[in-house]
Write a structure and sequence with these properties.
By secondary structure, the protein is an alpha/beta fold. The chain has 12 helices and 9 strands. α11 (about 200-205) links the parallel β7 (about 185-190) and β8. The structure holds ligand BJW. Ligand BJW binds near residues 164, 166, 193, 219 and 232.
């Protein structure tokens, strides 16, 4: 059987499917991935300066402006067939959708209960307390970044998880519980280099789940995959449901 038909059959039989998504799923919506050698964000910008708490402490204005530009790009983007296929899959099967993506395209495609491991770029939080900051506060307090309403030394920062920061515990607990329970795990459009997210397929495999990878390129997880689809997510995912 060809890999697409094999995975489609596995999907039909599965009791609980865990899908782990990464930046490749939003690439077809025009949002840059992180590690593409030419167009990836980390090919053009330094992660140490822009996606660490130390970088934010050194130059909060630089970090704030970079995230404001990305927010504008994401707001102008639309979900693609991969996002829509995953939303449709949730209506057909028991699905835990775990994403590393900080954009809101899964939610805008209609996926329910998305488990966001790396936060949400559209949200702002206090740099000291991590409490949420409302859009109204930000509109009334211009600044790059605006001050925080929650702490005198606090600044608004994007509600994402930077390197060296802990993932939101509730999301990680839900993701790990789904990995222990699922019988099919799909990693879609992720380089599988960033932990703990990249450990989820292995955790599921150890409990006996079948593991499938959908990616344009090989990743460190490929050798552990039972089924590999070398196709764009926006082609492979709709084809699986057809
Ligand atoms: C397509 C496609 C198409 C393209 N169709 N496919 C264990 C071992 C080693 C290190 C660690 C470890 N545990 C923790 C660490 C440290 C660190 C880490 O993992 N470092 C490694 C890089 C070495 N992890 C952390 O710091 C995490 N925190 C943590 O663990 O806290 C406790 C702790 C701290 C320190 C030490 C030990 C424990 C936090 C990680 C936060 C990641 N944050 C970012 C930025 C978010 C905010 C923002 O957007 O600015 O999250 S980094 C970036 O990478 C982003 C992504 O979510 C994440 C993953 O990237 P992703 O999604 O895989 O994208 P790409 O670009 O890498 O890959 C795209 C893929 O798509 C490619 O494979 C393409 O081929 C494919 N593709 N088009 C299908 N159309």
């Amino acid at each position: 059987m060809d890999p697409l038909s094999e995975l489609a059959a596995r999907l039909r039989q599965a009791r609980h499917v865990l899908v782990l998504t990464g930046a490749g799923v939003s690439a077809e919506s025009g949002i840059a991935t992180f590690r593409d050698a030419q167009t990836g964000l980390w090919a053009r910008y330094r992660a140490e300066d822009l996606a660490t708490p130390e970088g934010f402490r050194r130059d909060p204005a630089l970090v704030w402006r970079w995230y404001q530009a990305r927010r504008a790009q994401i707001a102008a983007a639309a979900p693609n067939p991969a996002h829509h296929a995953l939303a449709a899959l949730a209506a057909q099967t028991r699905l835990s959708l775990v994403t590393q993506n900080v954009d809101d395209l899964h939610q805008r495609a209609g996926s329910p209960a998305v488990i966001c491991l790396h936060g949400a770029i559209m949200r702002s939080i206090c740099s000291v307390t991590r409490l949420p900051i409302s859009a109204q506060w930000l509109a009334a307090h211009p600044g790059e970044p605006p001050p925080s309403p929650h702490h005198a030394q606090g600044l608004a920062r994007p509600g994402v998880v930077w390197f060296g920061e802990n993932l939101p515990q509730e999301a990680l607990d839900l993701a790990e519980a789904a990995a222990r329970d699922c019988d099919l795990v799909l990693a879609v459009g992720t380089s599988a280099l960033v932990y703990p997210a990249a450990g989820l397929p292995e955790l599921a495999k150890r409990q006996g789940a079948c593991f499938a990878e959908i990616n344009l390129e090989a990743t460190p997880l490929t050798r552990r995959a039972d089924i590999v689809l070398r196709q764009p997510a926006g082609v492979a995912l709709p084809a699986l449901l057809a």
